[in-house]
Write a structure and sequence with these properties.
The chain is mainly alpha-helical. The chain is 84% helix and 0% strand. It has 4 helices and no strands. The longest helix has 115 residues.
């Protein structure tokens, strides 16, 4: 009986030990799971915080880009508005000059009709009058065409200035291009001044006798053609200056925008006007 009791006591002790060990293991397991959960939560919190920071950074970058884009847009609008105003001033001045020229032409024609009476050959009279009228008409047409061409050349320069602003946003060195831009602007102003002066010209003919009529008509044509050629050369210089500006800009890489305009409308056809 004592042996049985001793065995039962030992058995109970073993069972209690196992149960105690299980409880300790369970507690340790719970503690481990709790720590792992806390670590996971801390990790996810960190991930969340990093995502928030990335999103905030992206938003800040976007805000900066939007701000620069808006600034560039405003700058371009200011340039365009300034050019529109200058063009309008130029056209208004040309209209004023032309009205003055019409008055001068009317007086010139009145004097010419008196002088032409010295010529007895009617066919020569008619021919001379036609030449005078044609030259005045050609002068108006040619200066109008050249004015349109200088506007188109200037439009290319506007697009170049827009790209320069884009390059500046990326902190690219565009100092060399800006020098060319100023040269192009000077050439454009010079061309416009020449066009304005030419539009106001009145070609007079001094007829003394029938013998000098042919020489006077030739001198009139030659003078007009020389004057128009001089103005065309001014327009071509502006064309070349803008082309040089575009070529210089094309050498700057990483602007990452539409292709740089490297061609400007060819003004060589003005020789046919």
């Amino acid at each position: 009986m004592k042996k049985y009791i001793k065995f039962s006591a030992s058995f109970i002790i073993i069972i209690l030990s196992l149960m105690l060990g299980f409880v300790v293991y369970a507690e340790e397991n719970v503690d481990t799971q709790s720590v792992e959960k806390e670590n996971r939560d801390a990790f996810m919190l960190k991930v969340g915080e990093n995502k928030i920071k990335r999103d905030e950074f992206k938003n800040e970058v976007k805000d900066v880009k939007d701000s620069l884009k808006e600034e560039r847009k405003n700058k371009l609008e200011e340039i365009i508005q300034s050019i529109k105003e200058k063009r309008q001033e130029f056209k208004t001045q040309m209209e004023t000059d032309r009205e003055e020229a019409k008055t001068k032409i009317a007086l010139m024609k009145a004097d010419f009709k008196e002088d032409i009476k010295k010529i007895k050959d009617e066919s020569k009279k008619i021919s001379a009058e036609k030449i005078v009228d044609i030259i005045q008409s050609l002068n108006t047409k040619s200066t109008d065409n050249l004015s349109d061409k200088i506007d188109k050349i200037e439009n290319v320069l506007i697009s170049i200035e827009s790209r320069i602003s884009k390059a500046e946003e990326k902190r690219l060195d565009v100092s060399s291009v800006k020098i060319e831009v100023e040269k192009a602007k000077t050439a454009i102003v010079s061309a416009r001044d020449a066009i304005s002066a030419q539009s106001n010209k009145v070609y007079e003919v001094n007829i003394t006798d029938e013998a000098s009529l042919k020489a006077e008509m030739k001198n009139l044509r030659d003078t007009f053609m020389t004057d128009i050629k001089t103005v065309r050369e001014k327009v071509k210089l502006a064309h070349t200056a803008v082309l040089d500006t575009a070529t210089t800009l094309a050498k700057i890489s990483k602007i990452d925008e539409e292709k740089i305009p490297t061609e400007v409308e060819n003004t060589s056809d003005t020789n046919n006007n």
